[in-house]
Amino acid sequence: MNVHLPANHIQPPLLEVQDLTVEFATRRGAVRAVEKVNLTLAKGETLGIVGESGSGKSVTSYTVMRILDRAGRIAEGTITFGGVDVGNAPESTVRALRGREMSMIFQNPRAALNPIRKVGKQIEDVLIEHVQAQPSDAKEKAIEVLKAVRIARPEERYHAYPFELSGGMCQRIVIALALACRPQLLIADEPTTGLDVTTQKAVMDLVVELARERNMATILITHDLGLAAAYCDRVMVMEKGRVVETATAEAIFRAPRHAYTRKLMRATPRGGITLRDLLPEEIATEMAPLGVKVPPASGQPLLVVENLIKEYPRQSAVSSLARMFGAKVAAPEPFRAVDGISFSLAKGESLGLVGESGCGKSTTSMMLMRLLDPTSGQIIFKGEDLSKIPARTFARSPWRSRIQMVFQDPTDSLNPRFTAARSIADPLLQMGENVSGPALRARVEELARLVGLPSPFLDRFPHQLSGGQKARVGIARAIALDPELVVLDEPTAALDVSVQAVVLNLLHDLKQRLGMSYIFVSHDLEVVRMLCDRVIVMRAGGIVEEGETAAVMAAPKAEYTRELLSSIPHPPIY
Amino acid sequence: MFRQIAKRLMTAIPSIIGVIIVTFLLTRVLPGDTAAYFAGPAASEQAISEIRAKLGLDRSLPVQFVAYVQDLATGNLGTSLTTGQPVIEDIRARLPASAELTLLGLLISILVAVPLGILAAVKQGSWIDHLCRIVATAGVSLPVFFTGLLLVYVFYYILGWAPAPLGRLDFFYTSPTTITGFYLIDSLLTGDIEVFRAAWSQIWLPAVTLAIFSLAPIARMTRASMLAVLASDFVRTARASGLKPSKVVMGYAFRNALLPIITTLGMVFSFLLGANVLVEKVFAWPGIGSYAIEALITSDYAPVQGFVLAMAILYVLLNLAIDILYGLVDPRVRIEA
Predict the structure, then answer these.
(1) Tens of pLDDT along A484-536?
(2) CATH match for B96-283+318-336 among 1.10.10.10, 3.20.20.30, 1.50.40.10, 1.10.3720.10
(3) String of DSSP letters for A118-132
(4) CA-nearest residue of chain A to B123?
(5) Predicted ipTM?
(6) Which residues of chain B lie closer than 8 angstroms to A104, CB-CB?
(7) What Pfam families does the record point to (chain B) (predicted)?
């Protein structure tokens, strides 16, 4: 009898997860991190698992590999991989699968590698463990593996330590490590978070290419819906430990069925939309329209930066000591982090500072904040050259209150022993505004209202607040002294997209309302496009391109800007 | 490599100069009059001032200091008034005794504490973790003279497993030819097994006493350091690559956890070397700690200065050794050197 069976009946799926529930033992009893998750994955298929922090997407994949930490356990459900019951198999069986049949690559590749072992040796360890090589030919095979992940000069890189390699290069090594034994399944856990967009594209292209070449199944775990849609066949959306929707990448984008998917999709920064479009519809319609962009008032600009340079000496402790003893040691050529940049900023304008890591954008913002002294150049703020005031004494200068900052990491930039109210009040107390008692509290509550932080949260400590709430505290603190210029250093980089959407809208509305100017440092071009009037693209300490944001994004003049723009992952339907 | 070491030693010069100045001044401002002490309780005013003049203590401080530095430059550390020997000879005879005891104590301590710390970290919260905590706390809370006396009481008095606690070697034996100054090593080098056994029977008890005391910092640091490393990303990668647990723990985690452990070892060693006076007293050990204490009590300047200087130089060498070890363990340190 010849019955036509669907393809997946002829070949059982490579990975099948049924009703998986994972519990973590905590001090307050068991917490369910993942609940009733089902998924199947065939050979050669690519599945994206998308969700925000706490959605259980990483826990799911760790459970499949069975590398959960001690506190976690499978409470219910089964995991079958290539016919093996992973959930109940003895540890030795699962260990033989790891690295050989199923592998994983991680976020923060540099930390994922042993810092004191040559990368080549680390690859050898895996090859020898899974009997893919003997000690005699391990080196040769390790170099082959390095070649497979397109590492230039593999013989040389074999002897490198992770700290000698760039982030993108480290991720290639981690991929090499994962793919050394030609596994059937690759799990990529936020493999490009923290990498630059161009590196992200290179890494993702490599993973997809290798997967296709080897007919390998891939699970891509990410918070970036755009990335998942661009590289995956199917996408599974998770929220709070549950799967809310699974569909083909295209279907998810064309017709998202679940409300959460819709919310997530709206919140993903992408071309052709405004800040308000990031928010859920019902909220967006209630809010005031964005307002027409008023051309900045002509006249004196708020800030003029002229030929700003920051050099760092390249020196070792030994040579400086030798010089102390009078020895004549030639000073090595200094390193220029910022190489003579000039620009101006009008009142009420917001300027985006974009570039990849190491381009000097953070150094620039630190100098504008007067936390760092420039080597040369001028920072003219309201007609006064602030570069003349040393960074060391700037905190006592009256200008300090005019320029404030919102920092990248909302958690690390708050004193863990201060309540939210105390953090917000800090600049008021430091800059001697002479407010205290009920007046101070009233001012703090007013600031909290401005940033949308409900007043009951004011008496909480940072660890009792969510990421978005901490970001609000940071913003309230920055605007407490009614500054004229706020430097925002990647203020939303550590936040989930839905929270980012809210914070970006808040920042925009605050600017409109208080008439501040922004310098917005970011690596995310789409975010900059929505928030900033003008943009500066930096590379290697210099300005590559400058102009109206819309114009630069629509028709970039510099080759580098074009490269940056083309590296942004584009979901299939845009 | 040698240039690195030479450069590294150069950085120690300012601190050695500082030590010389401070010890010189400190011994001068200490209460107590050397001349009066040595003249005896019944001496006349004139006899005291004669002794003072003989010792050169009547000169002004700067003059005394210049004389002291000149002596130092020729390797003359002065003469001890109590032993009547040149200080350098005394130190040469006594420093190896202390160093041998301390090193052996430290070695025993490492052999117990490091595996205990690793096991406690790997099996966090298990009985071995609690054992580690109890052993470490008990060891550090008992004063060394008490543990020493207890051990002497049990192993010498009751069990008779150890000889009388009277120095480095029973008086039946002659000390081995001095090569390193360590009896255990010298006796082996000269092939004298008998003496080795005798030296060993004398040293193990005080060494164990020191080991018990130094268990705590080493075990605790090993545990803490291992816990931090075991929670790190690259250990997760190693596990996800299917490496054996033994490879993950010893090959990946432990080598990375070594740096703080080495730092602790250096600190424990230098601390023990100077502070094992009490153990030396209990076991009548002819070490440098008891020598310095006696000199201090009698306001005998030269040995105190000699002792402090010797310790300072030892500390510098120790730090150099630790830095070299760092470089061997961690390639990142090698670059910065």
Answers:
(1) 999 999 888 878 888 888 899 999 999 888 889 999 998 888 889 889 999 99
(2) 1.10.3720.10
(3) -HHHHHHHHHHHTTS
(4) A70
(5) 0.79
(6) 237, 240
(7) BPD_transp_1, BPD_transp_1_N
